[in-house]
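Q: Hi! First time asking for a complex rather than a single chain. Here are the components, and I think there are three in total. Is that enough to go on?
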Amino acid sequence: MDKVLSARFGKIKPDSVEEYIAAGGYEGLKKTMAMEHVDAIEEIKKANLFGRGGAAYPTGIKWEQAYAIQRGPKYMVCNGDEGEPGTFKDRHILSEDPFELIEGMTIGAYIMGAREGYIYIRGEYTAIQKIVDSAIKNAEKAGYLGKNILGREGFDFTLKVVSGAGAYVCGENTALVESIEGKTGRPRQKPPYIKNCGLYQMPTILNNVETYSCIPWIIKDGGDTFSKKGTEFSGGTKLMCLSGNVQNRGVYEIPFGMTLRELIYDLGGGVTNGRKLKFVHLGGQSGSCFPESLLDTKICYYDLKKAGISLGSGAVVVVDDSHCAVDYLKNSMEFFEEESCGKCTPCREGTYRLVELVDKFTEGTATMEDFNKMKSLAQTMKTSSFCGLGQSAPVPLLTLIKYFEEEFLEHINGTCRTGVCKMR
Amino acid sequence: MQKVKEVLNRHGNSKDNLIQVMLELQNLSGTNSLPHEWVEFVAVELDMPLSRVYSVITFYSMFGTEPRGKYVVEVCKSAPCHVTGAGSLLAMLEKELQVKPGQTTEDGVFTLIQSACFGACDISPAIKIGDKVYGNLTPEKLSHIVNTYREVQ
Amino acid sequence: MEMINVTIDGIAVEVEKNTTILEAAKKLNINIPTLCFMKGVNEPGSCRVCVVEVEGWRGLHPACVTKVSEGLVVKTSTGTVREARKNILELIMSNHNRECLSCSRNLRCELQTLCNDNGIDRLPYNGKVEKGCIDTSGPIVRDPNKCVLCGRCVSVCSKIQDVGVIDYAYRGAHMTVTTAYEEGLAGHDCINCGQCIKACPVGALSERDDTAKVWKALENQDLHVVVQTAPAVRVALGEEFGYAPGTNVEGKMVTALRRLGFDRVFDTNFSADLTIIEEGNELLDRIKNGGKLPMITSCSPGWIKFCEHNYHDFLENLSTCKSPQQMFGAVAKSYYPIKADVDPKNVFVVSVMPCTAKKYEADREEMQVDGLKDIDAVITTRELARMIRQAGIKFNELEDGKRDSILGAYSGAGTIFGNTGGVMEAALRTVADKLTGKSLDAIDYTAVRGLAGIKEATVSIAGMDIKVAVANGTGNASKLLDRVKSGEAGYHFIEVMGCEGGCINGGGQPIIKDKNTTDEVKAARIKGLYDIDKACVTRKSHENPEIQKLYAEYLGEAGDHLAHKLLHTHYIAR
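A: Yes, that's all I need. Here is the structure of the assembled complex.
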């Protein structure tokens, strides 16, 4: 399979515009500039590309809607916050081929008529920010950013790297925009949506690093070609991140349609230390945890949805049978407790109380009443939280209970089958 | 304050760049934190209520409001690291450095903190010292790494 | 106006476009509970108490900020909604200091009512997050462990008052509302206006309780305890005893104060008249002799501290007149003791104020004459109501009492000091008479009345055009002063009140559930004051017989040496 996103990984100097061009770069931008705006958007729609950050919104439709908005200036924003545990794909794009992102954003700017763009990169990626910054400077020098790009009169576009400072919630679109504006990263009420009213209250086109990075290839080789790489319902390829108790950890670019089993066993080499797979945590910290029985599901937005799970960011954390489902849940819930922005009650207090309740299970002091409260609270967080963080924080809890209820009940009776929980 | 002023000027004395300014200032501080007087100065220069600036710097986990050690040792505690032995790394560091997470060693060299994911899940369990990430660790390997930082002192 | 059809709980209703579900439900007499919502001021949609079900939409949605759309079908009380509300209220309560019985807001607490209405009988959680200690550094007391993080105080402080001394800090369960570095309010730019207290749905914010000081003085046989009540108190105190906002209960209040044991019951309206004499004189002097203009009023201590922090360029524009509260104290410890034949050292002056900033003002170092503090204790309208209840006085049954003489007579002008535009109108009534040398009959300056944030007028008196402006709420004052700064507007005289609507909406006034900060309440209290004004024998400060006597017997002329020593002050750039 020829690769879309990782073809140049490790093969070019990441901030060298010349090497990028020599490896086929900037063909997409040139082609776009010879196209009608609507035709370029049509290509993206044909590509069947869905947002790679986790929400899986069809990118073509998003761009079409953004294009239709008359107000301006419009801003291009890239979400490179990548705070999702088990996710490190954007890190690879940003550090190994930042130009595919820059080109993708420049194509967007051309179509939308945007003159400014921001790449928001998580604060923990200091070294990577420098690489991207250097790539931007080199693109400016070579005439691929700045004024009159590629000699086209009036095609101006500048890019700026903005650093996060340690807040998972800034991966949420409106929180990210707030953070770029120098504020606390607390989400805004929607509507208005950021496509209408985003950065500085202006129309804003915001996509994940991986999504933007697909654009140059789509324009260059055609939306249909891209789409055919995947399944009927999910076009193209996906960067999957394998981590946890699996032999070959790392990022894999796979075509949609591959099964999770193929990814984990064929590419990933299976579970480490000869142990058995207990469950997979898919899509990030707020994704589903499910057992072996679902591994034959195809990696495809439609098939996964049918199985009641979501692809999220593409994180695949493999957990072997030496681990306790309840202890794992505690770890997940602690993450949300620390990362909740605090704005709304269900998430702020709910994540804290879920930790308190799960703690009781790991200590062997929980009751059935606690178990029921935990489930009820999780439902309320799901229905009533302000943003996606709080709404999806209970997903690991609900899915672990779904597949490992017995273990929870054992903890109520004071036993942990794995011996991980030190009962009081 | 000249230093602070320079950073502010470089960022156009704009409120929008508050976070970027603070990140730079923290790097310049030598204490891995934001000195109180600097924060006040920034609030005045950017014409912002001090309470708002404080709101921002306490929101983001990378900022410190109290002086921290020369090296901030971050132990990742997120799921991929958790299932591959992050717990033993933390236990080892607590013993070796004689501090709990959030505390600084008596000699002011190390501050130990637990951190959410910093994107090194493919080499878990991992820690970060300053900007440098160390992965595939065991307590023994980590002890060696910590000692090299000590020897530099 | 485009109309939209929606169905709420099975009842169809037509509402205007841009109506929220909350407002639409209200039209149908469906009460959706809210906590963080404060219309136009704080609409974060964050407490989630008001969540409702919308047919075809995933999850639940906050009624307070969700706009209706054509054909929307809303259900406000399904099993899912009730379970969510209960869970949410349990969560809020679990991190709330639940010392309800000893809380200043007991029985008046919005959270208490919500929990009661929604069947919160016991809490399923154990621990709680400690959020620091109670801030008692100034007249505004903050208890972070009672705070429910609704953000109403934060919004009022920054958006309405333009002060911004408090904000959220930290995140998640550790999030708190605080000053920078968790230092007390007194160490920062807090202007003590107390609008945050009025915004707070629970007892996380309250005024420093000074009633103990007053009780103690009343019991001390050696002290001669006199009390003054500010204009705005009489049209609000009744609310604490079930009267409608704006009801004038002056008579009952006077009787109650006497029963509490005050030796003399006087009136701040009297010293408001005194202020007008001094301030009017100062204004004319500045206009005639090229003094600093515009002159800006100085009666509102919240405004004064705001100016001292934020508008150093305008300190010389502030009238040097003390506020009516302080003028009263200065006279009560100089002129009054002579007339009453008591030792000034034994005179203990208590103020009943609609204001929390008055507590701060009374403690300012410069507010004393010859080593005697002008004012010894300040209590708010709310504190007075507490004292009345504590003393077992059946307020509603009291007969009307009359003020004591020589610091108790007042004009209509002194009365309207309690509302926005009132000081301006009172001053104009006197200045007009002085300039024309006549006693004019046309004295209703309606252009400066009303609840608009900034009001402007040009008044022609004796061939002279006097340009005036009125701002209420320090946020509006900021806007007005920025205009003055830019040279846009050449005013002679500006009135500023620290709180929106003036003292009638001060931080010490009764808190009325549901419509506490609404314009409806402000307007009713203002009307109460103008009704008194209309009924007054004299409506001009300089015609107040006790004021005339005070100058004739003691002070001499306005602005003279003694008047200056007692009645004027200075300001500090902070």
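A: Strands of chain A lie at 75-80, 116-121, 158-163, 204-208, 237-244, 250-255, 277-282, 289-290, 315-320. Let me know if you'd like any chain examined more closely.
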